[in-house]
Amino acid sequence: MITMLPRGFSIGQVRIASPLVQAALSGYSDRAMRVLARRHGAAYAVGEVLLDKFVAEAKQGRKASARLAVADEEHPVGGQLMGADPDGFAPAARRLVAEGYDVIDINFGCPVKKVLGRCRGGFLLSQPATALEIVGRVRDAVPPHVPVTLKMRRGIDHSRASRDNFWTIFEGAFARGAAAITVHGRTVEQRYVGPSDWSFLSDVKRQAGQRTVIGSGDLFSAAACVAMLEQTGVDGVSVARGAIGNPWIFGQALALLAGEPPTAPPTVHEQRDVLREHWSLAAELHGEAVAGRSMRKFAIKYSRLHPDHLAVRDAFVAVRMATDWADVLDRFYAEDFPGRDPTHDVDETADCGVTPDAD
User: Fold this and answer.
1) Could you give the CA distance from residue 180 to residue 10 in angstroms, rounded to a whole number?
2) The domain that contains 248 carries what CATH number?
3) Is 350 part of any domain?
4) Is the preceding peptide bond at 342 cis, omega within 30 degrees of 0?
5) Residue 143 and residue 3: Cα distance in Å, rounded?
6) Is 67 in contact with 79 (CB distance < 8 Å)?
7) Co-location of 62 and 172 in the same domain
8) Which of 147, 153, 295, 301 shows the smallest number of beta carbons within 10 Å?
């Protein structure tokens, strides 16, 4: 194993302290998840994808504030936008800057059917002219010190035309001032099925040279994060589904990068402490009632690390309020045991589709 890998990279004028990035995850990477990721070793995190219209038009209030909120401790932090009309991106980008985001990211990668049907996300990989107009509009809209980045998949499908469109957008985005590009090794057509093509990421990084490329796809363990860095030469790795309910992945990867032996999964008591911390952060952000709903999807993922994971999962599904959450912790997390390695039961169903109230 290579243990002298670069420990950081730059996105324009923004310095990222290590190669480990928390990806944008719709319905997940709110302020609470991002803060936890940063506390556990992620050097940079991106907020959940937001529709340009929602961001530009959202009124002040708890619901909108929760979707846009940034914590002092999470800088640098990126905000991700999705849309179809280039006209909608500039006001949304300016709003994200005003809310405190350090980087503006553009989503050209989401493969969800409803997103594609509305000409957003990964659909724009088939429309290079529109995609590049969006990049230019966002770059012109925000101050020069605020980097603009984008997230891409390696094309709509495996066709030659799709590959040509990828390179047109990739090179054109850098030419229009993009500071970094995140590339996922699957096509839009693949969604989350089949392996991510890391050899394509190697090709992209060779083509990019000194320009910043972040890799994405199949990062479900600390070892996978290090392997992608070693095998592809990308500047950073963007951990998406692998970080849901597992913020420890970042610290584990940092340890491997430092040449330390692999870290054991967190013990039951270590899991309990983070579950309490996550609930507190979510309740502060959303209020207890909303946190009770939103935290169930996280808890199902957290439960995979518990030795009695199926029973714990079922108990968390019934959680509604803080007292329910505390009852599950008292019942299943009172005694300390070694944690479970969940990497063999990867969930292939999560997606990046925008949440209903954002559409």
Assistant:
1) 9
2) 3.20.20.70
3) no
4) no
5) 37
6) no
7) yes
8) 301
Considering the domain architecture, whether residues 311 and 162 belong to the same structural domain is answered as no
**Alpha helix positions (H), the chain:** 31-39, 52-57, 62-68, 89-99, 113-117, 128-141, 160-175, 198-208, 222-232, 248-257, 268-286, 288-302, 309-317, 322-332
- What whole-number distance in Å separates Cα of residue 177 and Cα of residue 227? 30
Encode pLDDT of 32-86 as tens digits: 999 999 999 999 999 999 999 999 998 877 778 889 999 999 999 999 999 999 9
**What pLDDT, in 10s, does the model give residues 122-181?**
889 999 999 999 999 999 999 999 999 999 999 888 999 989 999 999 999 999 999 999
In eight-state DSSP terms, residue 354 is P
CA distance 72 to 74: 6
Residue 88 inside a domain? The answer is: yes
Q: Which two tokens stand for residue 259?
A: 């040449």
CA distances from 64 to 34, 51, 292 (A): 17, 12, 18
State if pTM tops 0.85.
yes
58 shares a domain with 108 = yes
Measuring CA to CA, how many Å separate 222 from each of 178, 193, 236? 28, 21, 13
305 and 218 in a common domain: no
Domain end call among 219, 239, 261 = 261
Give the domain range for residue 236.
9-261
User: Which positions are annotated as active-site residues?
Assistant: 110
